[in-house]
Write a structure and sequence with these properties.
The chain is α+β, with helices and mostly antiparallel strands. Helices cover 24% and strands 32% of the residues. The chain folds into three domains: 112 residues; 96 residues, no CATH class; 117 residues, Galactose-binding domain-like (Jelly Rolls).
Length: 368
């Protein structure tokens, strides 16, 4: 028996989803005007956004490393975040010691773990090098921005002799805010006697501090607080070297994590907030883009989109004039509604893991 020999390689872009949904709703692709395509994309956007209310699409889970500021309660989550359901304080185990700028200057102050003035690293591809003396594992890279924010895709280089360096990883492009930390975990972690971080380009690099997170760091779960428990605390401005409680304040655009106690200087330079979060499904994008759902969700998407199309698209004139065709259309609407519900039920049933279930009492939508 001949088979394709491939698995999950078939492209299934937004155009194909819309055309299949339209056919199920009784419309031919040729009947779909350009404006209707825009409405279909809008419906995919609102539909996938609504699925977040119905459950937890597991592919939208994210592990984030966030920056907290000295004496400030709000920790900003990543754009697109729906909820942060587990918040942690990471004890970084940061490197402290000598370092050398790529320009040849002394960069030890940048690993001092205490307030200092901004440092300008001049020259093309500016960076900083740490000579550990022997092979040392580095798990996390942190950069404390200077007076001006910028976006950069930093490069991590290693060397065995301190002379010849090889780029091991190019980190994803990320905003480095002014006066705030930007952290990224290395995947995989690196181990070398010499580790260098550079900012590619011809311009100099203005930076305030670095953190190289060494092994044996810890993510310590921060206890969740309700809204009332957080605001009923006697001294919300109390500072310490690490928070032990947090309240997830769900705002219009994205949640904020309110931590307590607030960070003091020691905590700011030696740790950060991490969290397990869930995000929205990606926007539909261009009609040639794939929609960010697993293939096991495609039937649910097409049937549910068909139910929206048959409700929003105008009824053809020939159908309006024919009682028989109107009856057929009503039957089609019922069939689509049934198939959409069945497909969504099967899709949600597969959003599970085989780990033991942990039950936590909860009263929605709000509880003190």
């Amino acid at each position: 028996m001949a088979t394709s020999g491939t698995v999950s390689t078939q492209r299934y872009n937004a155009t194909r989803v819309i055309e299949h949904a339209a056919r199920r709703a009784g419309y031919q692709p040729a009947d779909i005007a350009a404006q209707d395509l825009i409405y279909c994309k809008d419906s995919i956007f609102t539909l996938t956004s609504q699925w977040i209310n119905a459950g937890f699409p597991l592919w939208t889970r994210r592990y984030d490393i966030l920056s907290a500021a000295i004496g400030q309660e709000n920790v900003q989550t990543v754009d697109g975040t729906v909820d942060a359901f587990s918040v942690y304080w990471r004890l970084l185990m940061p490197y402290r010691g000598p370092a050398t700028l790529t320009s040849g200057g002394d960069g030890s102050v940048l690993f001092g773990g205490q307030p200092n003035a901004d440092v300008t690293i001049p020259g093309a591809n500016p960076g900083i090098t740490v000579a550990f003396g022997s092979s040392q594992e580095v798990d996390t890279i942190g950069v404390l921005g200077g007076a001006v924010a910028y976006t950069a895709a930093l490069e991590v280089q290693t060397s065995q002799d301190g002379v010849t360096f090889t780029t091991i990883q190019t980190l994803p492009s990320k905003l480095i805010p002014a006066g705030a930390w930007s952290y990224q975990d290395l995947s995989p972690t690196i181990s070398a006697p010499f580790v260098r971080v550079i900012k590619p380009g011809s311009a100099s690099w203005v930076v305030n501090q670095f953190n190289f997170g060494l092994p044996n760091w810890q993510d310590i779960l921060i206890g969740p607080l309700s809204m009332d428990d957080y605001y009923n605390q006697g001294n919300r401005a109390f500072r310490n070297n690490q928070p032990n409680s947090s309240y997830v304040d769900r705002q219009l655009l994205k949640p904020q994590i309110k931590i307590w106690p607030l960070l003091d200087t020691q905590g700011f330079y030696n740790g950060c907030i991490t969290c397990l979060s869930r995000r929205y499904i990606q926007d539909p994008g261009a009609l040639t883009d794939d929609i960010e759902v697993p293939q096991r969700w495609l039937e649910a998407l097409q049937w549910r989109l068909a139910s929206i199309i048959i409700m929003e698209f105008p009824i053809p004139d020939e159908v309006k004039r024919s009682p028989l065709l109107l009856q057929e259309r009503a039957q089609r609407m019922q069939t689509i509604s049934t198939e959409a519900a069945n497909s969504e039920r099967l899709a949600w049933a597969e959003e599970r893991t085989r780990a033991p279930i942990r039950w936590l009492p909860d009263i929605s939508a709000y509880t003190a």
